[in-house]
Amino acid sequence: MSLVHSYIKHLGVNSRIYSMQELDDLLSAEDHPDYMKKHRAILIGDRVRFVASLFTLLIPLWIIVDYLLLPMDVLLPIVVIRLISTGHFYYLSRYKTAENDLKKNLLILGGLLINLPLTFFASAHFLTPVTDQEMGQLALQLYTILPYVAIGLIGLFPLSVIEGMVISLLLVVLTITGWSYYATVPVDQIFAMLWLLCIILGVVLFAATLQLQYMIALITRADHDPVTGAQTRKSGMQSLVKAFEQAHVHGGNLSIALVDLDNAENIIAEFDYATYDHVVVEAADILHDDLRHSDMLVRWGEKVFLLLLPGTDCDGAAITVKRIHSKGLGTLPDGSPVTASISVCERVADNIEEWSQMLEVVNTRRDNAKHEGKDRYFLCGDKVVEH
Predict the structure, then answer these.
(1) How far apart are CA 211 and CA 217, in angstroms?
(2) 3-state class of 97 per DSSP?
(3) In this protein, which residues make up the domain named GGDEF (predicted)?
């Protein structure tokens, strides 16, 4: 068992998977944060349009090959099928989702990929009668590679293992149906082709998962503070603007809270910078543990964190802040607690019309908490609560 465990650990290190959470993120995208889903939706949508544009040009060009290989009575329905396929690709090349919806873009990706197997499936019906001719047999063999092309395209997209397998299963079912239903491939060759299909499928699924892994790493590195793991100020500002726009359109609640650690200069003077860094990291961990999956933690400044709480009214924000304040934000080496001055602003209760107003209000309340003695928090309506 120790040998197996050692080998699994070796595989994890070489594939840069160091925790079960990282493995879960590759197996399923269900728990990915919203910003990750947004980036992935954009990338998948862009690549779908690029591939669709490419095939919009390539599919009609294949008509030249059909013209050279097929008799005229077979050529006409094949051309019609190709034009329908081209029309579908052209539609996808121009299609854009309204709000970078990941699920919708995954469905569009599935629609893109099944085009080629369906083209093979439909064409085989007309090609089968001419397989006794050398040219007809060659044409059919060329059409037989279309499912392989579709499966190969999976590797161009950052997909989780489950997403890749669901799409692949659909393609494999269509491919096998096309092979068997029209008897386009001898039975004794189907197993060999199926084995090749599975090998190609394994490679492209691995490639798609690697793309997802590197995408997660790059986005995390660009949008997150490397010390605390919280979102950077730039990324947090973008998240705030988007959350405010959504709340404004739908008339929903949106709360933000500013958590400003107290006495940072005294901590550095009495201890050292290493202790101060530890305090900041520990405070970030505590704050993160108190947030819901939909909430966001932003490192707003050197010692300041912004909590973004979508769909949260004043009472909900008060509960979160009271919990954080009562629990504390860590301890110093001498055992004394780390405190913070905290302020809250809520879009509806504070009659906010612009997202920038929320920042002005929450900054003012934070400053008031500092001036009135620190270690306290201001809620909506400037209600102050001391320790």
Answers:
(1) 10
(2) coil
(3) 252-382
* Strand pairing report for 304-310 and 254-261: antiparallel
Closest CA to 154 of 104, 109, 186: 109
Contact present, 52 and 112 (Cβ < 8 Å): yes
Residues 6+ positions from 36 with CB-CB distance below 8 Å: 216, 219
Q: Where does the pLDDT of residue 183 fall: very low under 50, low under 70, confident under 90, or very high at 90 and above?
A: low
pLDDT attached to residue 326: 85
Mean pLDDT of 337-365: 91
Structure token pair of residue 22: 């990282």
pLDDT at 112: 92
Cα three-residue angle 17-28-112, rounded to 5 degrees: 115
Q: Which of 102, 115, 199, 197 is nearest to 159 (CA)?
A: 102
- Report H helices in 182-311: 187-223, 233-250, 264-270, 273-289
Model pTM? 0.62
Give the C-alpha separation, 64 to 201, whole Å. 30
Choose among 39, 45, 48: nearest CA to 98.
45
Helix (H) or strand (E) holding 89: helix 72-94
Residues 206/198, Cβ–Cβ less than 8 Å: no
Q: Estimate the crossing angle of helix 233-250 against helix 187-223, to 10 degrees.
A: 100
> Both tokens of residue 157?
């997209």
Q: Supply the DSSP string of 137-196, one letter for each residue.
A: HHHHHHHHTHHHHHHHHGGGS---HHHHHHHHHHHHHHHHHHHHHTT-S-HHHHHHHHHH
Residue 379 has pLDDT above 60, yes or no: yes
Could you tell me how many helices (H) and strands (E) the chain has, helices first?
14, 6
Residues 109-129 pLDDT 10s: 998 998 888 887 777 777 766
Sketch out the chain's domains with CATH numbers.
2-223 (no CATH), 233-386 (3.30.70.270)
Token duo for residue 269: 């003077």
